[in-house]
Amino acid sequence: MKEYKIAENDTPYWWEAAPVRPLPKQPLTKNLDIVIVGAGYAGLSAGLVLAREGRSVAAFDAMNPGEGASSRNGGITSGSIRPDYATITRRFGEEKAIAIEAEGKIAREFVYNLIKTEGLDCDFRLTGQFKGVVGFEDYEKTARSAGLLAKKLGIEAYGVPYREQGKYIGTDFYRGGMVRMDIGGLHPAKFHAELLRVALASGLVIHSGTRVNSIEKEGSAFVVSTSAGAVRARQVLVCTDGYTDGAVPYLRRRLVPVRSRIIVTEELAPDVMARLMPKQMMMTEGRQLGFYYRPTPDGKRILLGGRDSSRRGDPIEPKLYLRNGLVNLFPELENVKLSHTWFGNVAMHRDMLPRIFEREGVVYATGFCGSGVVWAPWVGTRAAHKLLGHTEQARSAFDFRPPASIPLYSGNPWFMPAIIRGYRIQDQIAFYRARR
């Protein structure tokens, strides 16, 4: 009996144009200025800065560079922060909340400038983003938020009432939403490949398929044990996120890997794309477990992603969940085939804010909570300047205490399926209570 396949390919769509490959084996330098753990967006961005400052620096990645979240995400430059402004104010104070909001704008501009100045060919377009809401009362709150963004930070943001929604998206599912024009889309695997290119050209040495086993303090230096042998370094920067393993147990007790899954349609007719995605914008929702979606860079397909409650294997249920979500948004796509589906890990933690922190001499740049396209390069770069002692260039609202540890957790997220089911129930209740 032939196994049912919901999509033709179970590998990332992005790998078609930018395959993830191992790098040539490099000799192991026994004494270094700096070791970086992880060669995703954060590790490469940090390594680029450090190598250009003349430091001897090597990055170690247990997989092929970019094989994790850096080439598996949706490619949306949202720079989202999970807690809202009121929550951040309550937890950390108004001064911190204002600084975090302001830094999001700076971080996006940093990434856009990085793409331009380094000549990174990654299909970037500043398209804007539409965020849909499920009820008219939600719209009022969202429109006010857009007004605050425009007033406080000078971001071009505005509410879109239900009667004007069709100009931005071809669905009746929402009851309006908001647009912000400082968000765009890129090809995430190309973005990583281009960062890799300039980082290697700068002198960063990268050891792919080389796992870090432990980091131990020895006098004024660190001994970093890897699968290729041990090296000594004056400083260590850990840039792992959703793929953090036992090499850094302190961080592992604080980051929870959560699967994020994506589906991609087959090529759609130009008139269908023009009707469903009239402005080729990035799309998101106001629900707890809302979908994120977008046209592919060539404008011929729709990519849609969301959280996946599975923990092992590659079950069909999460794929069907996204497939049904796509059809709920766009009923005319009911019979459309899917070309690709895949998943990758994002890292969540208790306060859901990206983080730079130092513990026992090791600096960490991590905790991107599903928004690493913007936060990983930004936080990686700030952390590199922290290592270099560049006070002003290292300054960041995210440089403060480590995330709190999670009770009864040491790397096995046994509780995540129940949490995600709970969020889905909350979304269902909110949907039925919404004034639609």
CATH architecture, please? 3-Layer(bba) Sandwich
Average pLDDT for all residues: 94
Helix content: 25-40%
CATH superfamily: FAD/NAD(P)-binding domain
| CA-atom Rg in angstroms | 21 Å
Please trace the helix and strand order, writing H or E for each element. EEHEHHEHEEHEEEEHEHEEEHEEEHHH
Protein name: Glycine/D-amino acid oxidase-like deaminating enzyme
GO molecular function: oxidoreductase activity
Domain FAD dependent oxidoreductase: 33-384
Pfam families: DAO
Write the SSE topology.
Elements: E1 7-9, E2 31-37, H1 41-52, E3 57-60, H2 85-92, H3 94-118, E4 129-132, H4 136-153, E5 157-160, E6 177-180, H5 188-202, E7 205-207, E8 212-218, E9 221-226, E10 229-238, H6 249-252, E11 256-265, H7 270-276, E12 282-285, E13 292-295, E14 302-308, H8 317-329, E15 338-348, E16 355-359, E17 362-366, H9 372-388, H10 391-394, H11 416-433
Parallel strand pairs: 1-15, 2-3, 2-10, 3-7, 4-12, 10-17
Antiparallel strand pairs: 4-6, 5-6, 8-9, 9-10, 11-14, 11-15, 13-14, 16-17
Helix pairs in contact: 1-5, 1-9, 2-3, 3-9
